[in-house]
């Protein structure tokens, strides 16, 4: 008999839910955009309401199907808090926020970033939980004293569903996880000066294990029957890896989502040799090296609004312009909210370079999309540098941006190798469902999959990628928060 799960993927831009069976078939889908306002971060109560509404729509459309449980994947990092009496805090601060930029700049200048990387294998950035907490504690001292728990987005949803305060290994990996023991590192917390945050971090469980059951209040909000099991989920990028069926060292999953992410699996529990990116614990003896650029589809949306691309066919108009703009050497550095990997540059800014009288909207559109692609390619280079074979295996491109065939072609041209585009919707939801059903590492057959190879634009795109890397090296001294020339690309020897 088929077992059915409600699997939720609570992202930065969209909240999606699917009804999926243990046969791998998706029987229903519901989604809604994340509600944002003009304040930093977002309203976590509204985030929960949107999630509950998405689940309710899905469940009501399939009321005749008995549910085995609920599982959630979600955007990682950030600062999601509970206050006195378990009340949800008024604001949550996100992984791509810049509130912690000055904190990170100080940590970087003093060598704390380097030392912490040696313990936990992650370069902390402005939107990492520790940096956000250090900022929040100083900016809102009264509110900070009332915080009773700090966790991530999917943990907040699980709390609203069950009343249980908990997290899993993938979300707990940043900022405090000891890679050797898979437990919180008190030494790392002391190094960062945030021991008080460590005291707020929840117990760590494993993805797929039973967490609790749906409460009466959550049942009323979501339509899921009271008492339905809720299983522990995972950070969305790990869930997407599981959903893609990848897992061999050298294989790369690249995601063109709100952020441009590149990741590969490694069995080496030691911190990576290069000071870059994040290390997530996926399970016993398995680690995921992740390069999550701060740029992605959010950067593209910024440019489209700025340039006046409007209407239902605005994407078609954009990509038509990109195709017309292949000539020229214009570059765009897509760092509108700083950068976190593979370089740490919290005060980096977006930059157009190489503009001439021949530059037009088409060339600028090409430069913007290509700039995001270059950031993605740099991440691929970085995760491969951590693999002992240093060889590129299968490359799978996923995420909302991968649905644009022109963008997928741009990625293939930049990498110089054929890539597989996995256009299946709800890859993260599929991944956490697989965790519950007990075959996380099994390879599933795929639909909606195509292979894209480099074309005649490959050489030009490759040349512009090298120019992109050179431009970042040249401009990075200007991105110091105190404008003293601190280079965010420095090596350990550069700090006294």
How do the helices and strands line up, and which of them pair or pack?
Blueprint: E1 4-10, E2 14-21, E3 26-33, H1 44-61, E4 69-74, E5 80-82, H2 101-110, H3 112-120, H4 129-139, H5 141-145, E6 149-151, H6 153-162, E7 167-168, H7 169-176, E8 177-178, E9 183-184, H8 186-192, H9 195-198, E10 204-205, E11 210-213, H10 216-222, E12 229-235, H11 236-244, E13 252-256, E14 260-266, E15 278-283, E16 286-292, H12 297-307, H13 314-324, E17 331-333, E18 351-353, H14 361-385, E19 395-398, H15 405-415, E20 419-422, H16 427-437, E21 449-452, H17 458-475
Parallel strand pairs: 1-4, 4-12, 7-10, 13-19, 19-20
Antiparallel strand pairs: 1-2, 2-3, 5-6, 8-9, 11-12, 13-14, 14-16, 15-16, 17-18, 20-21
What does this structure look like?
It is a single chain. This protein has 496 residues and is α/β, with parallel strands linked by helices. It has a domain at 4-238: 2-Layer Sandwich (Nucleotidyltransferase, domain 5), CATH 3.30.420.40. The protein is 37% helix and 20% strand. It is built from 17 helices and 21 strands. It has helices at 44-61, 101-110, 112-120, 129-139, 141-145, 153-162, 169-176, 186-192, 195-198, 216-222, 236-244, 297-307, 314-324, 361-385, 405-415, 427-437, 458-475, and strands at residues 4-10, 14-21, 26-33, 69-74, 80-82, 149-151, 167-168, 177-178, 183-184, 204-205, 210-213, 229-235, 252-256, 260-266, 278-283, 286-292, 331-333, 351-353, 395-398, 419-422, 449-452. The strands form 6 sheets. It has a 7-stranded mixed sheet with strand order 15-16-14-13-19-20-21, sandwiched between helices. The protein has a 6-stranded mixed sheet with strand order 3-2-1-4-12-11, with helices on both faces. Helix 2 (101-110) crosses helix 4 (129-139) and helix 15 crosses helix 17 (458-475). Residues 440-445 and 482-496 have low confidence and may be disordered.
């Amino acid at each position: 008999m088929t077992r059915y799960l409600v699997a939720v993927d609570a992202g930065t831009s969209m909240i999606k839910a699917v009804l999926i069976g243990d046969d791998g078939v998706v029987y229903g889908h519901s989604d809604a955009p994340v509600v944002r306002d003009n304040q930093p971060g977002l309203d976590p109560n509204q985030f929960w309401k949107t999630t509950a509404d998405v689940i309710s729509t899905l469940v009501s459309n399939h009321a005749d199907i008995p549910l085995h449980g609920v599982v959630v994947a979600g955007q990682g990092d950030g600062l999601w808090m509970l206050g006195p009496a378990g009340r949800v805090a008024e604001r949550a601060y996100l992984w791509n926020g810049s509130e912690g930029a000055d904190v990170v700049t100080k940590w970087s200048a003093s060598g704390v970033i380097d030392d912490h990387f040696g313990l936990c294998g992650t370069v902390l950035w402005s939107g990492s939980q520790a940096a956000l907490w250090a900022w929040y504690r100083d900016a809102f001292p009264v509110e900070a004293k009332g915080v009773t728990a700090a966790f991530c987005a999917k943990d907040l949803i699980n709390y609203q569903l069950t009343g249980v305060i908990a997290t899993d290994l993938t979300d707990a990996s940043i900022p405090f996880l000891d890679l050797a023991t898979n437990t919180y590192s008190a030494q790392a917390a002391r190094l960062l000066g945030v021991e008080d945050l460590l005291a707020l971090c929840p117990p760590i469980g494993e993805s797929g294990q039973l967490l609790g059951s749906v409460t009466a209040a959550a049942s009323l909000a979501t339509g899921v029957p009271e008492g339905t099991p809720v299983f522990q989920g995972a950070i969305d990028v790990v869930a997407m890896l599981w959903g893609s069926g990848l897992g061999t060292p050298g294989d790369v999953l690249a995601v063109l989502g709100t952020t441009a992410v590149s990741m590969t699996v490694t069995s080496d529990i030691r911190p990576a040799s290069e000071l870059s990116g994040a290390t997530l614990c996926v399970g016993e003896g398995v680690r995921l090296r992740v390069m999550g650029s701060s740029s992605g589809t959010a950067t593209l949306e910024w440019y489209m609004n700025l340039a006046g691309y409007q209407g239902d066919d605005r994407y078609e108009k954009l990509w038509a312009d990109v195709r017309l703009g292949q000539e020229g050497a214009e570059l765009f550095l897509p760092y509108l909210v700083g950068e976190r990997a593979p370089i740490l540059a919290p005060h980096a800014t977006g930059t157009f370079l190489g503009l001439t009288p021949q530059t037009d909207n088409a060339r600028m559109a090409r430069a913007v999309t290509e700039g995001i692609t270059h950031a993605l390619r740099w991440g691929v280079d970085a995760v491969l540098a951590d693999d002992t074979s240093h060889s590129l295996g299968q490359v799978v491109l996923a995420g909302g941006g991968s649905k644009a065939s022109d963008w997928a072609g741009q990625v293939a041209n930049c990498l110089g190798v054929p890539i597989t585009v996995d256009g299946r919707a709800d890859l993260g939801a599929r991944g956490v469902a697989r965790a519950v059903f007990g075959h996380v590492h099994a390879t599933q057959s795929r639909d909606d999959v195509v292979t894209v190879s480099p074309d005649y634009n490959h050489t030009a795109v490759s040349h512009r990628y090298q120019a992109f890397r050179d431009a970042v090296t040249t401009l990075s001294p200007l991105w110091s928060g105190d404008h003293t020339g601190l280079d965010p690309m420095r090596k350990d020897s550069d700090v006294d």
